[in-house]
Amino acid sequence: MHLTPEFLADVLVRQGVLSEAQGLDVKKEARMMPKTLRSARAYGQRSVAYELILRLGFTPQNGHPSLSEHVIAEAVAKEAQLEHVRIDPLKLDADLIESQISRPFARRHRMIPISLDNGVLKVACANPFNLEGIDAFRRIAGRQIELVVASEPEILKALTEFYGLRHSVKKAERDLGGGIDLGNLEQLVRMKNAAEIESSDQHIVNAVEYMLQHAYDSRASDVHIEPKRDDSLIRFRIDGVLHDIQRIPKVVHRAIVSRIKTMSRLDIAEKRRPQDGRVKTLRGDREIELRVSTLPIAFGEKVVMRIFDPDVLVQDLTGLGFYPEELEIFSDFIIRPHGIVLVTGPTGSGKTTTLYSALKTIANQEQNITTIEDPIEMVYEAFNQTAVNPKIGITFGAALRHILRQDPDIIMVGEIRDQETADYAIQAALTGHLVFSTLHTNDAASSISRLADLGVERFLIASTLIGTMAQRLVRRICQHCITERYLTPDEAEALHLSVPAGKRVKIYEGQGCFECRNTGYRGRSGIFEILRIDDKIKELIVEGADAQHIKREAMRLGMKTLRQSALRKLADGVTTFEEVIRVTAL
To answer: In whole angstroms, what is the distance from residue 500 CA to residue 404 CA?
Structure first.
């Protein structure tokens, strides 16, 4: 028995999700569907009933803000008096799935095993009224099963990802001998859709594409492929934390590494030296870039692919986590006609995203915006971007010297690392250019000392520096499972907060749910320490004041520290006590 639109319409009406009139509209629309779509074969490949109902765009009658596949699945679960679950592909056990159910059976009956606990196999199904399929699976499994309900599109997606990757890896392991010649590919690689991948017999190509699709869908920022003694491990970094995805055989690891090297135009034969490359993929109509790094380690070549999604890397400034008054100050920095704006922080603190977003904000056709990067993180049409290459003498300083002859209006220097770069940045600012750059310092005031340590005269720093901003990234509390609690005395002491006797301070944390993969966090937000170089700060710079003296004066004038910014995010329910302690220091 398939989930027909008519059957789902009746369920949704009985469960109060749709009105009688809406249910009749679904049935009317279903009667107009082409016969080919209504065939059993079509139902085996797509979630036709879900597609039809969602396309009609009904507003639910039971208080849900919108009709989604999960609202439909909840109604089906209630009808069957079963639990509704969400399927997290990262939490599924591929070995369990493969050992319990065949791919054709799983697709035909919309079922997938999700856990085995004390001999009881929990099975997610889209149609709990498909008694024939359920009984058949019970006989095949030969054990007690517990049925739960998940949405049909979610089950199909999980089956495609897991059977696809697993199937490709298994076939590759079987077919591979001493190696595989993958040939040559263009640097621009179009990501296929699931149907196209399945129809291909290039198992390694398929495995890599499934892996990348899985990474994109999981919001991963990095993909790690790590050789171990007996096999290899694929891991994704999501919201700053690594998650184990799948183990693969050693022979398949070598072929996957070769495939990735080919895509990124690296030397397949070179396995003793680290290599760096990049590849641009097309996913639908969106370009997503991958920066590829290989590194020989004890048991083979490790590969890390960093994912550069333009929707993430180049955002509006309002999406970075600024409070209104912080955004006002930083916006004032970036609209100045000339001078230097510095963003500071450790690697991975979001500096590049902030600078790209700032450049995007001020970019227009009347300006020449040029960047010097190591490497170019994201190709953006509005910028003229160049990459440093020390092997041929193109350092940050050398590139900046040549760019000054290119009639620039705005210059972004990836990092000020030495006196040459610092001197040219100062010269550019003095000659009417707006310069953005980064430094690796712990706070905003320390950037002034760092420039002085590089040999820049203090009066030049005072006359060119507009402002500096230190930043970090804290994980956001998942809004689907956020809960309130009160700060404990020990936590208040750790934060150096003085809480009056009898007063309770409310804070928030995430319990963990499907949406956040039981971490309690989903996404990240910036925290900022913004130092405006006003007349008083300029005096201190020229006088030779150290970073702590400048910081104290800036705080007296109203500057908020990173810790204070984080505490505000804690009070507002954006992040947790643990994140404040982890990311900031007094």
So the answer is: 58
Strands (DSSP E) contained in 221-374 are 222-227, 231-238, 241-249, 275-283, 286-297, 300-308, 339-344, 369-373
Interval 484-528: pLDDT, tens: 999 999 999 999 998 888 889 999 999 888 778 778 999 999 999
Give the span between the Cα atoms of 247 and 258, in whole angstroms. Answer: 17
* CATH number of 302's domain: 3.30.450.90
| Measured CA distances, 259 to 218, 249, 342, 555, 580 (Å) | 22, 15, 39, 53, 41
Query: Which pair of structure tokens corresponds to residue 27?
Result: 């049935």
pLDDT at 549 over 90: yes
**Dist CA 456 CA 564 (whole Å):** 31
Q: What is the predicted pLDDT for the residue at 167?
A: 62
Which DSSP helix (H) or strand (E) runs through 496? none
Could you tell me which of 511, 501, 453 has the C-alpha nearest to residue 477?
A: 511
The total of structural domains in the chain comes to 3
Which residues lie below 8 Å from residue 21, measured CB to CB, with a gap of 6+? none
Q: Looking at 308, 326, 357, which one is the last position of a domain?
A: 308
β 384-387/222-227 pair status = unpaired
C-alpha 468/C-alpha 449 separation (Å) is 12
227 and 361 in a common domain: no
Give Cβ neighbours of residue 253 (< 8 Å, ≥ 6 apart).
225, 227, 231, 232, 300
**Cβ atoms of residues 218 and 244 within 8 Å:** no
In a domain, 553, yes or no: yes
Q: Do residues 356 and 467 share a domain?
A: yes
Per-residue pLDDT tens over the stretch 200-220? 336 788 888 888 888 888 889
Between CA 507 and CA 487 the distance in angstroms is 6
Angle, helices 69-80/48-55, rounded to nearest 10 degrees: 120
Look up residue 499 and give its two tokens. 């809480």
Write out the residue range of the structural domain in which residue 416 sits: 317-475+525-559
* pLDDT score for 281: 82
- b (16+ CB within 10 A) / e for 535-549: eebbebbeeebebee
| Rounded-to-integer distance, Cα 417 and Cα 153, Å | 50
- Together in a domain, 324 and 411: yes
* Cis status of the peptide bond prior to 375, with omega within 30 of 0: yes
Task: Identify whether residues 231 and 338 lie together within a single domain.
Answer: no
Residue 468 has pLDDT above 90, yes or no: yes
User: Rounded distance, CA 342 to CA 146, Å?
Assistant: 58
* Secondary-structure breakdown of the chain: helix, strand, coil percentages, each rounded to the nearest 5: 40, 25, 35
**150 φ, ψ to 5°?**
-130, 165
- 511 assigned to some structural domain: no
Residue 565 parent element (H or E): helix 562-571
Instruction: Report the distance separating Cα 505 and Cα 576, nearest Å.
Output: 13
- Residue 359 located in a structural domain: yes
Question: Could you tell me which of 585, 584, 582, 586 has the C-alpha nearest to residue 241?
Answer: 582
Nearest to 259 by CA among 301, 228, 217, 221: 301
CA 377 to chain centre: 15
Pair (231, 288) in one structural domain: yes
Q: Measured between alpha carbons, how far is 217 from 89 in angstroms, rounded to an integer?
A: 10
